Amino acid sequence: QVQLVESGGGSVESGGSLRLSCVASGYTYSTYCMAWFRQAPEKEREGVAGIDSDGSTNYADSVQGRFTISQDVAKNTLYLQMNSLKPQDTAMYYCAMKPRCAFSGAYYYTLKNLGVAGFDYWGQGTQVTVSS
Hints:
By secondary structure, the chain is mainly beta. It is about 5% helix and about 50% strand. The strands form two sheets. Strands 2, 4, 5, 6, 9, 10 and 11 form a seven-stranded mixed beta sheet that branches. It has a four-stranded antiparallel beta sheet with strand order 1-3-8-7, with no helix packed on it. The longest helix has 4 residues, at about 110-115. The protein starts with a strand and ends with a strand.
């Protein structure tokens, strides 16, 4: 089974930065998509950023230009560098994985067309709080 463990959340002031990490284990997929989702209280979970096994990325409009998703394959670790944080970024952030997936190619997925239901494995989440 796949296990995903997030870390790196915390409290920062508006305009600050945080770097989230997600360590993955128990997987053996040649192609996959990994993503960061977030969920604020009483709001639906939304996709923030995704990256596939080839390194292609996909971002939500609300974070594009501020957040950067990356992965260290050797360390089985996914990252989310968050800069210029805003109070509306406050949420629980979750790491997710989908086998047999790509964000590029002749035919590809996006965070929007996959949605929450499109991802098979999830971490427990890490809290990010941004004060004004």
